[in-house]
Amino acid sequence: MVSPDPCSRVLSIQARDRLSCVQMLLHMGADHTSQEIKSNKTVLHLAVQAANTVLVQLLLELPQGDLRAFVNMKAHGNTALHMAAALPPGPHQEAIVRHLLAAGADPALRNLENEQPIHLLRPGPGPEGVSIE
Known about the structure:
Layout: H1 6-27, H2 43-49, H3 53-60, H4 67-71, H5 80-85, H6 91-102
Helix pairs in contact: 2-3, 3-6
Protein name: NFKB inhibitor delta
InterPro entries: Ankyrin_rpt (IPR002110), Ankyrin_rpt-contain_sf (IPR036770)
GO biological process, one term: regulation of gene expression
């Protein structure tokens, strides 16, 4: 029997600790809709950019007023769906795109370059059955 890779075990412990920290901050009243001053990114934009599927799902499940407005917030013209479309193709991209679309992300929104999220998909083997339309 092969023992688990110690590096992946450490990474999973670190990921769990980071998620616990975020959950604690949210529980203490941190506003997940706040935007960075320089980039206008929300924590959702940052989670998508990091391809952190678990954090994206957590943020989309938070009780909030207008989920569609939160999901479609722009950071320098890009929504979280634009950022997800620009991720490398793979299971993280597919899961994040599915979560965002289910939460009301609008695939017709355009960024400052007049691009819709579908225009930002990278070439290569795409996710099976996922369409940003």
